[in-house]
Design goal:
With 402 residues, this protein is an alpha+beta fold. Helices cover 32% and strands 31% of the residues. The chain has helices at 2-12, 17-20, 24-31, 35-47, 52-65, 74-122, 321-325, 339-350, 375-385; strands at 147-150, 156-159, 163-168, 172-175, 178-181, 193-198, 203-207, 213-216, 220-225, 233-244, 253-256, 261-264, 268-273, 279-286, 289-292, 299-301, 305-310, 313-318, 331-338, 354-356, 364-370, 388-393, 396-401.
Length: 402
């Protein structure tokens, strides 16, 4: 096994899915898996010697063929290879079109790039941060498994542990009740932004200078100024947060996301707005919220109403708001939620990989989970109440059809 791994780790490193699907050993090990081959692939994945997304896609493709016999007949093998060849041809054609489009765009934009460069160097004045927009503040390139507090000087402070509390005071930051003096901006005109980045399996609480409290869930980035403007308080969220906004007359609080912005004076609501998800929603707990989207009429929400934006389509519906903020106290309540959505939230919360069989991904479930339990305990509980089976193999939690 060691010799096999030594010979193959370079072969499979950065190997795309279409190449895996042309590899006899990969296909054989997936159609007729053994303990040795499972350990082999798990080791490559753990060491980063095979691309995880390509591997998972190729595995799902093999599984979709559903060859169940102990020995592959010649006609089954031929059908399998035909499916693989069809897939590979579609990938090559897609890439060919992408390359053609790239060269066209590159040639037509060259003149525009030269013109931009001339204008840029002609006016060498420094760009004022006040015109950049909070939504354009870039995330740090280096992502870690720890919670990160990114300060204005682009200094990242890693915070160990699964949870952290950051509180802004007049001239200091308290991190887990430990005080750190804030650095002052050199000019009054400069807007100093900080960022709180919470990875998978972590959570945090952020208390801003105005008294607003923000519970930050896993896989979330919050961008906010150290000092708010006197007439407008504004933050940017990519992920999930629960906010209890401090009331300030004539100074609205605005939360920006990738697709919309929400304006309040003093209220509490839950916002789920992961940039890589097709659906984002805001659930109002108390107070009132005005939702604004470009070129659309504003939407006003009342308590226990949920605003949803999915692929350009919006809707408002009545919900039980408490269910959507239960995660802040270590519970997860859900009503007629798909199993796929439930498992995706659990994967983010615990920071562990969960693979769901497509045959059961659409099952609608209702219930309550205690997030203080181990993930295996939570998934075993789901398997007791839903027609699914749970098992744990080589570092991956599997939910399959019974």
């Amino acid at each position: 096994m060691n010799r096999l791994q030594s010979d193959s780790e370079e072969k499979y490193k950065s190997c795309p899915a279409e190449e895996l699907l042309q590899d006899d050993f990969f296909i054989s090990s997936k159609v007729h898996p053994t303990e040795k081959t499972e350990v082999f692939w798990h080791t490559l994945l753990k060491n980063g010697d095979v691309d995880r997304e390509s591997y998972r896609f190729a595995c799902h493709f093999i599984e979709s063929v559903q060859v169940r016999s102990e020995v592959i007949r010649e006609d089954e093998k031929k059908a399998l290879w035909e499916k693989i060849e069809t897939y590979n041809r579609s990938i090559r054609e897609k890439r060919r079109k992408q390359h053609t489009l790239f060269y066209l765009l590159a040639s037509t934009s060259a003149a525009a790039l030269v013109l931009f460069a001339c204008l840029f160097f002609h006016d060498s004045s420094v760009v004022d941060n006040t015109h950049c927009g909070i939504e354009n503040v870039k995330a740090p390139e280096l992502q870690t498994e720890h919670i990160q507090l990114v300060l204005t000087e682009n200094e990242a402070v890693p915070l160990e542990g699964e949870e952290a509390e950051i509180a802004y005071r007049d001239s200091s930051i308290e991190i887990n009740r430990q005080k750190t003096e804030l650095k002052k901006s050199e000019t009054k005109k400069e807007i100093a932004y900080n960022q709180l980045i919470v990875p998978k399996g972590k959570r945090s609480k952020l208390i801003l200078k105005d008294g607003t409290q923000i519970w930050v869930n896993a896989c979330t980035r919050v961008v906010y100024p150290v000092d708010f403007d006197e007439k407008r308080r504004e933050i940017y969220v990519d992920g999930e947060v629960y906010l209890d906004v401090a009331h300030l007359d004539h100074c609205p609080f605005v939360v920006k996301t990738k697709t919309f912005s929400a304006e309040v004076l003093g209220t509490s609501f839950n916002l789920t707005a992961y940039g890589n998800d097709g659906e984002q929603h805001l659930v109002l707990v108390s107070g009132s919220v005005r939702i604004h989207m470009d070129s659309r009429k504003d939407v006003l929400l009342a308590p226990n109403e949920m605003f949803t934006s999915a692929n350009g389509v919006t809707q408002v519906q009545t919900v039980h708001a408490e269910e959507y903020i239960s995660w802040t106290s270590g519970l997860y309540q859900y009503e007629s939620e798909t199993l796929k959505t439930i498992l995706k939230r659990l994967s983010r919360y615990y920071g562990q990989e969960i693979v769901c069989d497509p045959q059961v991904a659409g099952l609608k479930c209702s219930g309550k989970l205690d997030l203080k339990d181990e993930l295996s305990t939570v998934l075993e509980g789901i398997a007791l109440t839903a027609p699914v089976r749970y098992k744990y193999n080589y570092g991956v939690h599997l939910i399959t059809n019974q």
